[in-house]
Known about the structure:
This protein is α/β, with parallel strands linked by helices. It contains nine helices and nine strands. The chain has helices spanning 3-8, 14-17, 20-28, 41-48, 74-81, 93-105, 122-125, 146-156, 183-192; strands at 57-58, 61-62, 64-68, 85-90, 110-114, 129-135, 157-167, 195-201, 215-221.
Amino acid sequence: MPEHITRMHMPTDNARIDTPDYWAERYASGQTGWDMKDETPVFRGLRLRGEFPVSAVQHGQAATLFVPGCGYGYDALAFARAGYRVTAVDFAAEPLQVLQDNAVSSNVNVAIVQADVFALPENRFTGTFSAVLEYTCYCALPPERRAEYARVLADSLAPDGWLVALLFPTDGRTGGPPFAIDPEEAQQLFTAVGLELIRSEVPKDSHPARAGKELLALFRKSM
Ligand SMILES: C[S@@+](CC[C@H](N)C(=O)[O-])C[C@H]1O[C@@H](n2cnc3c(N)ncnc32)[C@H](O)[C@@H]1O
């Protein structure tokens, strides 16, 4: 098993996982086995093939993209470079500083917000985004908060907005984070908050370390 998977498998009590301190310590001690150090290949593939459900410019305006639990924000940066207006959120300060530095050095604009996804400022995060990019935030949260998280994502979307979710890990592992994802349960949670599943598939272009353990699921806000 690759090192980055085993490192993520640290039994910890869920109340602690739910705090910025837990994640800040993981970053400070370099226990960031989830860090793939580059844009997520599946998202890049969707964009380059023209299959990302929201194009960068819509009705003459940049499409807006919300990246919750962004970590170092490689995806946020890549989509911003491609012309999306990106808002990246994490409650750990360290990765956001790295993202900020990278955004400045690449001369790209990303709105970086240090916040708990369960306590987002309503005026900025309700009904506004063209799309949400979900990757490894869902699996990082205590599983008992997943329904609440699904609601946060749905609420953040504009009418007809898209949730582009790359669900990992789907291989039924025990312990966490990352906590295993049952795709059917995830679909039920997202459907319950008004997101309709439009497309789902096991992607062919996963990072090699995650091949066969991811499911790409595209949902559209339907109410
Ligand atoms: C496993 S890491 C994944 C980071 C990034 N998505 C990636 O793929 O590299 C989970 C991230 O979610 C953040 N996070 C966890 N719970 C959060 C919460 N309630 N609010 C905001 N960020 C949270 C952590 O600080 C961490 O950066």
